[in-house]
Amino acid sequence: MFRKNIPSLLRHLLKDMPKNQPVIAGNGSVIFDDNNKQLRYESIDMKTIFKIIDMLRKDYANVYYQFFDQDIVCAEKFESTIQHYYEMNLTLPREYRLELHIISDAKKYLEKNNSIVTKIEICNDDLNLIQEIKDRLEKIPNIEVVGSGLNGIEITKKGLNKGNSLEILAKHYGYSIDECIAVGNDENDIEMIKKVGLGIAVKNAKDYVKEVADYITRNDNNNDAIAEVVKKFIKPAI
Predict the structure, then answer these.
(1) Residues 6 or more apart from 44 whose CB is under 8 A from it?
(2) Contact at 8 Å (CB) between 23 and 84?
(3) Each residue of 92-117: pLDDT tens digit?
(4) Which residues, listed in sequence order, are joined to residue 102 by a DSSP beta bridge?
(5) What pTM did the predictor assign?
(6) Which residues touch 63 (CB under 8 Å, ≥6 apart)?
(7) 142 and 51, same structural domain?
(8) Which of 13, 103, 218, 238 has an alpha carbon 20 to 30 Å from 64's alpha carbon atom?
(9) Which residues form a coiled coil (predicted)?
(10) Domain that holds residue 67
(11) CATH at residue 210
C-alpha cells in the first residue's frame, strides 16, 4: 500500500509555512495537494530495479546507491547520502526524521517487503565514472536518468519529471502551465523550466540550465534568489 502522507522530511520543511502547501517530490514521481491528497505516486518496476542493481554489482561494486521506498531510504553501505541523512536526523524531532535502513542485500529486501521505489540515487566522486554509468543507464528503456549535484545520478520511472508534475498540479488548481513560474539550478529542473510560462535559473545554476531559462537571478539559491523572484515577478502582479 502507498503511504498517503507527505514524506516526513518535507513535512519538517513545510511546518513553518503559514498554511499547508502542495508538494512535488522525487523528481516528479510524487505529488500531494495542500490537503495532503495524493495526485501522483509512481514507482519504478522491480524488474528494472533488479537490472540496475545487477549492473552496479557486476561492474561498479564500489559505487554507492540508495533507494527511496516510500518514506524509507535504503542502502547497503553507511556512507555518502544516507550518512548525511543520519546526521541530519540527529537534529530533527522524531516525527520528522527519515527512516533509514542499512540492508545486506537490496534485491532480497525489496522483494521481501514489496517495496515501492519512487527514486534511485547513485553517487561517486569519480565524475568520469558517474558519466559512464549515466550513459549506460540511459539505454534502459523504462527509466528517466538525470544528473544531480556534482557527483550524482537520479533515476525515476520513464516519463516522469518536475515539468509534467507541475502541469498536473497546476491543472488541479485550475491554472494553465503558462501561468506558472519555476525556479531551478540543476539538470532535473530543466523540463520544468522549459514547460512553464516563466522559467528561471538561479545565479549558481549549471550552464545548461541557464541556457533554457527565460531569466537568470542576480542572487544564488543560498542568498535570496527566491525573494528576488517574488519581488520582481510576483508582487507586481498581485
Answers:
(1) 117, 118, 119, 120, 142, 143, 155, 156, 157
(2) no
(3) 888 888 899 999 999 999 999 999 99
(4) 75
(5) 0.89
(6) 56, 122, 123, 124, 129, 133
(7) yes
(8) 13
(9) none
(10) 46-157
(11) 3.40.50.1000
